[in-house]
Write a structure and sequence with these properties.
2 copies of one chain form a homodimer. By secondary structure, chain A is α+β, with helices and mostly antiparallel strands. Chain A has 7 helices and 8 strands; from the N terminus they run αβββαβαββαααββα. Chain A starts with a helix and ends in a 5-residue tail after the last helix. At the A-B interface, strand 1, strand 4, helix 4, helix 6 and helix 7 of A face strand 1, strand 4, helix 4, helix 6 and helix 7 of B.
Chain lengths: ~260, ~260
Amino acid sequence: MENWEETALKDFVENGYKTYIPNVSIDCVIFGYHDHRLKILLSDIEGMDGNCLPGGYIKRTETLDEAANRIVEEKTSITGLYLQQYKTFGDPGRIKWDEFDLDQFSKKRPFKKIKSSWLKDQTISIGYYAITDFSLVEPRPGFMSTSCEWYDIDKIPPLMFDHDQMVRDALQTLRSQLYYHPIVEKLLPEKFALTEIHAVYETILGRELHIRNFPQKLLFLELITKLNEKRNIGPHRAPFLYKFNKDKYTEALKAGVTLV
Amino acid sequence: MENWEETALKDFVENGYKTYIPNVSIDCVIFGYHDHRLKILLSDIEGMDGNCLPGGYIKRTETLDEAANRIVEEKTSITGLYLQQYKTFGDPGRIKWDEFDLDQFSKKRPFKKIKSSWLKDQTISIGYYAITDFSLVEPRPGFMSTSCEWYDIDKIPPLMFDHDQMVRDALQTLRSQLYYHPIVEKLLPEKFALTEIHAVYETILGRELHIRNFPQKLLFLELITKLNEKRNIGPHRAPFLYKFNKDKYTEALKAGVTLV
């Protein structure tokens, strides 16, 4: 006798294309930063071996952004994440169904129809990415997942489908947008020391930045402003504090005017 | 009696989903720059009123980039354009079929089946953009189009579907990527005067840039290098020439390190 979840899954496999747009999915690369460490959130698909990005399909009534946010919430229990579309993936060989043991999936979820389901037709996937402070969120596996965990960016296991490529491209996008999207702003307190912003940039870019020249450039470009205020962090240690120049960020985001 | 093109069209409407991935299309925003002028390439769909971006579907054997390049070639006769994916559009109301006079289309192309064709299901569209020197290309209308022309960026007529939004977003992307993608490089000779690069940036950004501070920032960021060489353009007029610092551009494109 089937339970509610099995009935829902059977209906999804057989009739899902009536609710969701077929041939298109969404996959999400969720970065987490905290104190010099960059991580990424990985999930899985119940009944299949391996790790993958949290992903799903787009309801016919949803915008793409709404779908991405719902999928993250359903798969990871994280709410209110600011997701941003970065690239769409559609190489013909991106999902090699032949390499998957569908029988294994079928054993656990005995729906023979999956072999001819709309789910098996060629699928193009829209990549979204987000960054959050990983110490502030508690991911939990959701519908059709059994795991949902943070992995250090340099210890990611090989992923299913083309998700390795998706992670590489998301990281490149994150790095290239560090200066004109309000990314770093979300990871720092309103007032911060230069060592703190230095650590965020170094960790995300994955390389050393000059201790003096780097903040000098941020100041030259007017992305941050020095405050007439210090923070006591120990004897003889009270660095000046800085804040983001939000207008400059907003302007840059809208018109691409970071540099002029 | 049907001619070859009508037979091909009928087959496309009825059986196209076997060759092409349904529910996903590609639309292309092609910018053209020359001598202080920025234009955009608009096409149409034979049998329908109005202007739209050159667009089409993805063959099941193609990568997305291959499809985008083929579509541009088929619709505009332009070959070898460097197209770049920038955003995917999927709002539920992006194509309002009810507002289209399908009978008008059917009259010219009498295929009643279009009303229930795969073409009428909800479609998500992947946006590509490119920029070229419009004085060097000669667009011509291709398959299912009757027009293909350059329009000044500030004289674009209202477009079909959500193509106005696509153009706005492409322009924003173009502007925000001006500093770390090799965009401007394609529009200037190898050695150029500061007035020339100034004109390209001003025209694409659509606003005035400071005549001295602007090149100073480009030099500060090492995006351009001054050459020990001048060009004679008239009596008492021989400005120094500059060239792009290609390594810096490539580095910036790969790792987002434009500013540090």
